[in-house]
Amino acid sequence: xxxxxxxxxxxxxxxxxxxxxxxxxxxxxxAAASYLFCHEGFAAxxxxxxxxxxxxxxxxxxxxxASKERLIEAVLETEGAAWRAWFFEEIARIPxxxxxxxxxLFDVLHRWFADPAFYGCPFINAIGEFATGDERIRAIxxxxxxxxxxxxxxxxxxxRLPDPARAARLFTVLIDGAIVAAQxxxxxxxxxxxxxxxxxxxxxxxxxxx
Length: 210
Description:
Elements: H1 3-9, H2 25-40, H3 47-54, H4 58-64, H5 68-92, H6 98-113, H7 122-129, H8 135-158, H9 164-185, H10 190-209
């Protein structure tokens, strides 16, 4: 395997927030699966394609992952952790109060959407592809969303919004809607439209307080 190819394989889905993998056989398989699942689809990607991209035998793949479903779960858990680490690190750089952080998160999303390799949210994609309901995949997706929802609710409390739980749900709708719209249109500005809608929620709340 050429050095450039090996280095590229370490970046999984190859977007700014992708997990970074080692050169171990297990990690090469995860990185290859991450890229293929995210850019070509979970259902459309077979284990043969993953093994081929990873430069591994199918027996090696099954040694580390008992089934394609377990491989999908491992990719979601790994890439989800990498995305959250990136997201919260970017959020930490936003100056100002809780309102600034809540509105600033959409600027962070805009940078993500503008990445040429942006493919959407792997959790939204996976749930959409497995609509009949793989409960393990749904549980992993729910755990990921809980991290984001919990952070938004905490910020909403700091911003003294009257109903932090409802505000967190509204922000989640704006975030997920912007992700899907940006993925479908290849237009990162949907993040800024969602930011304007979030700002309107703040303005509406301030108007009620007067």
